[in-house]
Amino acid sequence: MGNLYMMTTIVDRKIAKKYIDFYESKGKNVMFISLGYGTVANEILDYLGLESNEKAVFFSVLDDNSWQDTKKGLQKELQIDAPGGGIAFTIPLSSIGGKKPLWYLLENQDYRKEEESTLQNTTHELIIVIAEQGYTNLIMDAARGAGAYGGTVIHAKGTGIAAAEKFMGVSIAAEKEIIFIVTKTNKKNDIMKAIMTEAGLDSKAKSIAFSLPVTDTAGLRLVED
Fold first, then answer.
1. What pTM does this model have?
2. What is the mean pLDDT of residues 41-67?
3. How far is 150 from 182, CA to CA, in rounded Å?
4. CA atoms within 13 A of residue 160's CA, in its CB half-sphere
5. Which fold has domain 95-224?
6. What CA–CA distance (Å, rounded) separates 50 from 27?
7. Paired strand residues for 131
8. Tally of CA atoms within 13 A in the half-sphere of 184 that contains its CB
9. Which of these, 111, 110, 130, 109, lies nearest to 27 by C-alpha position?
10. What is the pLDDT of residues 47-56, one digit of tens each?
11. In the chain, where does DSSP find H-type helix?
12. How far apart are CA 198 and CA 95, in angstroms?
């Protein structure tokens, strides 16, 4: 999958609404939002002009052109580079589990498929599955049946739900579970196919899945051996 990225934005919870409004003004209605906490010591927070380490974390998918436009807006309109502004970064996607999840994630972005990511020679990949709450076991049973070892789950809230229902013709609840699965690259396609077959958008789980290249790992050797 070429020229597609997962954009992650981390900001203070107090200014999260400003970022939601900004992204929606840019046409990015489909986002997944989770709450988090920073780990910076109090003296560093004071130095940076930050009052709190409570964070809001946004995940969304966009192409390179959208990222460049979004980056300019973040810098000029929201002053993200100023102390306390936050951080946004992109990670290249290596694949998405089917056309319907691709259309859902990109909404109205004009995307033309290119060659896969230049990081295609990595030995491991991170599969990210976003699904309705309560279906983690269904998803992980499918993943393990295709060779996955395990996963990590966080809770999040989806935005742009009304637009997604109109565009996709399916009802998608706001409360989400995001599952992270690290696997060997040669098992990625089988795992994603199993998840989308058993728990895809046509199922009650309403899952979408995509993968990111992992450049290095630690802690997996004994599990894989």
1. 0.64
2. 70
3. 8
4. 24
5. Alpha-Beta Plaits (3.30.70)
6. 29
7. 177
8. 11
9. 109
10. 555 555 678 8
11. 16-25, 42-48, 64-76, 99-106, 136-145, 161-168, 185-199, 221-224
12. 18
Q: How far is it, in rounded angstroms, from Cα 84 to Cα 67?
A: 21
* Distance in angstroms between the alpha carbons of the first and the last residue of the chain: 30
CATH code at 4-92: 3.30.70.120
Domain regions of the chain by residue span: 4-92, 95-224
Average pLDDT over residues 189-212: 93
CA pair distance 17, 24, nearest whole angstrom: 11
Helix, strand, coil in percent for the chain, rounding step 5: 35, 30, 35
Backbone angles phi, psi at 219, to 5 degrees: 95, 0
- Per CATH, 4-92 and 95-224 having the same topology is answered yes
